[in-house]
Amino acid sequence: MENKDLEFSLSPVPQSHRNGFWKILAVMLGLTFFSASMWAGGTLGNGLSFTTFMLVVLAGNLLLGIYTGALAHISAKTGLSTHLLTKYAFGIKGSYLSSFLLASTQVGWFGVGVAMFAVPVHKVTGINLYLLIVLSGILMTLTAIYGMKALAILGMVAVPAIAILGSYSVFEATETIGGMEGLMAYQPVQGLGIAAALTICIGSFVSAGTLTPDFTRFAKTSKSAVTATVIAFFLGNSLMFLFGAVGAMTYGKSDISDVMFLQGLILPAIIVLGLNIWTTNENALYASSLGYTTITKWNKNKIVVFNGVLGTIAAMWLYNNFTGFLTVLGSALPSIGAIIIADYFFLNRAKYKVAFKKMTFKSVNWMAILAWAGGVAAAELLPGIAPINGLAGSIILYIILMKSAPLFAAKSVRKLNEKVS
Length: 421
Hints:
Layout: H1 21-32, H2 35-47, H3 50-78, H4 82-90, H5 92-125, H6 129-145, H7 147-177, H8 179-185, H9 194-203, H10 206-209, H11 213-216, H12 222-251, H13 256-262, H14 266-296, H15 300-313, H16 315-321, H17 323-330, H18 334-347, H19 366-381, H20 386-420
Helix pairs in contact: 1-7, 1-12, 1-14, 2-12, 3-9, 3-12, 3-18, 4-5, 4-18, 5-6, 5-14, 5-15, 5-16, 5-17, 6-14, 6-15, 7-8, 7-12, 7-13, 7-14, 13-14, 14-15, 18-19, 18-20, 19-20
């Protein structure tokens, strides 16, 4: 008997398998509780006053919340993952490009995440580095096999632990710098511009935010999906930025686990670091498996294991050589989400008239490919806030190209008829 795919890798999630608000919130907070956000917060903390930092972070994460909230609404209404939603805009084979980019970056970040846990723990404890890599890679892969249930359970355990232990450490750091007065009086040695600061804030997680539908498609209602997502990206991500900024201002360290090591909180630091990376890595591995399953139609769990083994084996190489490339590659992902938003809200008026299972998709929608490329170019070349340029550029280009295509086709037909007659 064939095993039923309860993760609905290739089909919409039915209402009978949807989850309530708290489970979705736990998963989304687990996604946003990540060391990379702390590093970004530390960069902002080193370049901004505390007041400016708070304004930038709240503004940037509000914009992230709007972007990911729109994707959450679409996925909750349709029950579709990011990879299945792209079929509407990009076509069947066109969606393979977006799925490959999304999945590959997540496998890469999974490997980086494994090393991000193993390296500092090795330095502090002396435990063999490669033993730590293998054990952590195996644990993170095993939980990803169990899909959304494991994501929710781990999130419910990890999120409160990280928030409580991290907040205690930040409180201690705040006391060290002179309390709130010390923080408010802090002035960076070298200032950072607002546009650059917003680019760091939004850009640090907008790529992962593009994968929001992979998780929020399991929400029972659009309201719960959007609310959980906005809370995770606006409040949860802001908390990670705050952890990083206070650590950087006080100790010159962005990651809360590094701060806790300095404070002598060795075991709490290992717990926070492990849970922090575990929740995000599990999400990354899960999302990558959905992408490759969409392309290959292979069993999702086998792909999870393969990706987990690949990421674990390559962890140190990825950590040392591939992080910069992954960041550049990640800049190409937000335009995919922007095109999904444009296709659903602007071209289909917030409702796909034909259900996914009955829909006849194009093979490749070249208008979507062009809009995606134009959005990436806008993010890289135009002045201002790069992620916003990319998102806005893709949406505008996609709408213009899709609206213009029928007019050009009709004009070509008329010219052909005139020649024939």
